[in-house]
Amino acid sequence: MFEEADHVMPLMSASKLWSDLEDTVEDESLFKNITHLLLVQSVAVCLEKGKSSSASSALKWFENNHESPQNMMVKLSTIVTQRETDHPFLMSFSFSRLLKTIKSYLDAYLEKNPSDYLLKEATKMVQSSDNTEGLEDVMTQDSSLSEEANKSTENRKEKKKKAVCLRTKRKLLSTKISDMWETDSCKKLFVSLRRIPRDELSELTSAKSMDTSKIEKTRKPARKWTYELDRYLKIGVRRHGQGNWSRILMDFDFDGRTGTMLKDRWRVLLKTNKVG
């Protein structure tokens, strides 16, 4: 359909095809409008790409192959020489306007000449797609049935293998082995009682008392509350209130003391009237 020459652009080939359809177009003004739009857009595309030489060659091609109005050709030649890509004349004959006019022509033509051939081909395509879908459904059903049959046979084989394994295990295990094993709970308990003399009792009690004295000695001595720690406690109670010991611990360093220790110290301060 399009010319194979390198200097001929698609829009130029489209204008040649459009000129061959002159007899089929009833509206002469519409035909001239589309030819003018193809001419202007062929030049505008070259200018947008920065190819002024291609734009001038396109003008010469239209002069040789089409009967274009002289004033339009002169205006386009001046635009090409000045390289005015944003000229109002080019904007008035825009590409979007070309598409709209061609679409309006096609809509009007299809209204008058409805294409029965396209509708027949479309129905054939729909019927063929329905048939293929039906075949696909049959194939899927067959495949699902075959898969179910394979699964049932595999399950039967596995059950047979399990039964054989159980039989062999039962033969290997003997019933007499269970008689040889006895749990500790079955054994009888034996308790022996012995009377301890007084000397041994006194030694045992003295040893226990020594152990307890050692434990008492190893206990850490109580840490004293310094004036600085009392001051921290008073500031914390003023800031957060009585009972919020965890927050007070976060504000100051109380030398490893806990919230209960802070509470006990506060009670002591209240009893001694050191806090109002």
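(the above was protein one; protein two follows)
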Amino acid sequence: MQLVDNNTFLQQLGALFESTKVKGTIWLTHKRLTHNGDDTVMKEEHESDEIREYPCIVRVTDGKKAAFSTKILSIDLDKFHSAYGALLKASMTTLRKRDKKREKQRAEQLAKRKQRMADPVVIDGPKRGNGRRKRQRQVKAALKHADMKERAAKREEARTKQ
């Protein structure tokens, strides 16, 4: 991951937002930087009197080739956040609105499918004569329903083992 200064970071982030305007994903992470380079374990010293300020690190990646970060000192934080916030607000126009109608429709279909699995298939009608074909379709549907229940039970069993 490439460490760049704040202005370069904002310029590259703007370019990354532009490149993923039609399709793409960007991951942003913000962390307090506590590692000073000597060792990874922070030493507990008697620094309770002294207030220690830690820099902040902001990382960006698109999951493929672009990955860069910047270190923000506490004195530059307000300036950086105002520019960063403006860039994010300008880039939020490309976000898609969630399709709640489609999500609701899928949830209803799933509930309907579960209800059908819970209800048994009723087989009625004569074995011979009028209604024979209807009965054959019902028997076939009952066999398919039993097979579907068996597969769902196996899936659930496999899921509980993991």
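Reviewer note on protein two: The mean pLDDT is 85.
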